[in-house]
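Write out this protein's structure.
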Amino acid sequence: MKSKLCKNEFLSNQFLWSRLHRINQLKAVNSMYIWLIIVPVLINVLSTLQPDESNGKLINSFLMQIPKLPFSWRIFYFSAIFFFLANLLKSWRCPQIVRENSSFAGFRNKGMNDYNLSVYNVLLNFDEGYFGQSLIKARTRRAEPEYESELSELFQKLFNHADKLYECSRIICGIFYSVGFGLITYTAVESFCKVIRYTIH
C-alpha cells in the first residue's frame, strides 16, 4: 500500500522525471560532491590532532568530530548527501527515454527513428498492441511527409507516459533535491544576514 506521500497529487505533478533530470544536470548540484571528500578528510585530520576515546570505533569518532567543523561546512556536507541520494535514485529509476532525450527535436538530432522508439516502448512495456501497431504504420511511411508528425506524436505520448512513472520514487527524489537546495539557501541567507549585521554595527 502506498503512503499518503506517494499519493500526493501536487508533488507528483511537480516532480516529473524530466524536471528531476534537468536538476541532475546542474553544475551547482554536481559540484557539491566535493564536500563529500573535503569534510571526511578534515574530520580525519581533526581526529589525528584531537584523538578521542572511541577505541578505534570509526563511525563514533566521525560523528563526534562533525560539530567541530564550521557550521556552513556541515550544512554543505549534508546538502551533498541529499544531492547524492537524489542522483542515485534518479539514475536507478528514471526511464531511459527521459534520460536520453529532452525533446523530440533532440531525439531526431541524434539520428533516432521509429526503431529506437520501439525499443523504448519495449523497455517501458507501455502498449504493445495499439502503440506497436502505430509504430509499424509509421515505419511504412518513412519517405512520406506525414512521417515526422506521426513519429513526433508517438514520441510525445511515450515520453509523457515515462515522465510520470514510478510516482513514489519521483516524489522521494524531488524531496531529496529540495532538502539539498533548502540547506544551501539557508546557509546563503544566514551568511547574508551576518554581513548585514556586521555592516550595520
